[in-house]
Amino acid sequence: MLRLLLGLAVFLGGHSISVVAPAWRDRMAARLGVNAWRGLYSLFAALGLYLLVTGFAAARAAPVVLYVPPAWLHWLAVVLMVPVLPMLLAAYLPGRIRGALRHPMLVAIKTWALAHLLANGMLADVLLFGGFLAWAVAVRISLKRRPARPVPSAPAGRYNDLIAVAAGLALYAALLAGLHARLFGVAPLP
Fold first, then answer.
1. Are residues 94 and 185 in the same domain?
2. Is 8:52 a contact under the CB 8 Å cutoff?
3. What is the widest separation between alpha-carbon atoms in the chain?
4. How many C-alpha atoms does 47 have within 13 Å on its Cβ side?
5. Are 78 and 131 found together in one domain?
């Protein structure tokens, strides 16, 4: 469990630098150079992701049950997940979806985390998905008080929304068809 907590701290902490210390982030990027900063940031994020994945797997091996959700919440989670990947892709494909949601990646993360909290009641699940949900809410609130940084994305195009929806739904279908079970060891559909 300690590795999962450390992974959450490293991964979400690193992704919170622009929220809690934007001036420090800018000074470091200027001092090191933008590419060196991005390289260090990427290594830090990769370490956090590694700790998250291995810590979550280890915690699932010795599960601690906090609550047992009713079966219907599992199906609600499956439905809530439908727009998640299209919203995630829309963050990088400027179009109407991105314009309407303003921060589609944060909306996708919040929806993903909530859906998984509804369907899973183990301590590791609550820590992982609850941590991401709390982080996404905090970042969204902070964006109201600070200027958003530009997100690298594809050029604006009239088919971007269609691409985001079609590719996102195709990815979701692949996850339902067995990819989720292969990647994460849990089949979302019985």
1. yes
2. yes
3. 53
4. 11
5. yes
